[in-house]
Amino acid sequence: MKRDDARYSGPAKVKQSYMTEFLVECPKCKKDAFVQVNSGYVPSEGKLTCFNCMFSETSKDLIRYKAIVKRNCDNCGKPVNTEIPNQKETSSQVTLPCPHCGVTRTFQPRNEAYKLVYRSSGLSTDPVFNLPLWLQTEVKNNLFWAYNRQHLIDIKTYVEAKLRERQSKGFTTMVEKLPKFIKEAKNREAILKAISQLEKK
Ligand SMILES: [Zn+2]
Ligand SMILES: [Zn+2]
How far apart are CA 198 and CA 6, in angstroms? Predict the structure, then answer.
């Protein structure tokens, strides 16, 4: 064994460079699916693809509009406040009866866009769909997770290495930003065990 084998010499990559592809739990079949996003820096758009059940969806499919009418009835003068959520398109007209006098009028609503996200319970998720990451597990009461398989491999290489040096002067790399419990020598064995279980997942 060469003397340098224990030294970490992984790629000096920033965290964001891993954040373009996420392995997540498919919302339909609960198996592993991919989320690909436009940019690791401001991830707002992306595509979900599951090769297990062939479900796919884009972040644009998650956009909904709320048609909002806020006027006074021209018949009785009382306020007409109505919000119609969950519209896939913007509405140019809304016809509804006044809740006070019952006269029906057609209004031009204001359309407010919003994005549906999946609900997930306290787990690490992807930034676009909010789906739980596939590669996550608890290690000594800490949540350990990786965005994708390459991220997991690079964390593993780092944890395996006994000698860790500052990688770059210009920027903070992904491994340098890892949570403290992953870096602590006393947790090395537990982390490596968790990683090997996730690798089989
Ligand atoms: Zn699926
Ligand atoms: Zn009225």
Answer: 23
What is the 8-class DSSP label of residue 155? H
- Closest CA relative to residue 104, chosen from 74, 124, 84, 79: 74
- How many whole angstroms separate alpha carbon 127 and alpha carbon 161? 30
Interval between CA 30 and ligand 1 midpoint (Å): 6
What does the pLDDT look like over 50-91, one tens digit per residue? 999 999 999 989 999 999 999 999 999 999 999 999 999 999
Residue ranges of domains in the chain: 3-61+118-200, 62-115
Span from the CA of 66 to the centroid of ligand 1 (angstroms): 29
Residues, CB within 5 angstroms of ligand 1 (ion): 26, 28-29, 50, 52-53, 55
The token pair that represents 190 in the structure block: 């537990």
pLDDT in tens, 126-158: 989 999 999 999 999 999 999 999 999 999 999
Ligand nearest to the CA of 51: 1
Question: Which of these, 57, 61, 59, 107, lies nearest to 84 by C-alpha position?
Answer: 107
